[in-house]
Specification:
This protein has 70 residues and is mainly alpha-helical. Helices cover 57% and strands 6% of the residues.
């Protein structure tokens, strides 16, 4: 959550920052945690990633079902 991390945040496919990160980092992050650093932000982001993975898997399954119905 330090300003030097901004370049990494910009290059990352999926990035996050805790709610108390510097504004410059918050502006670059693709996900802003509701939790502060040291208060569950990493866990929150990990759970967010798992949710995205679950949604993507569900969408792929729906796409597969849709293709099989043609």
């Amino acid at each position: 959550n330090d300003e030097p991390d901004v370049k990494c945040l910009e290059l990352a496919g999926l990035s996050a920052a805790p709610m108390d990160a510097p504004t410059v980092a918050l502006n670059c992050a693709k996900y802003i945690c509701h939790n502060a650093a040291g208060h569950g932000a990493v866990r929150e982001f990990a759970e967010h990633i798992l949710l995205l993975k679950k949604k993507a898997k569900s969408q792929m399954e729906q796409d597969r079902i849709g293709r099989n119905n043609f």
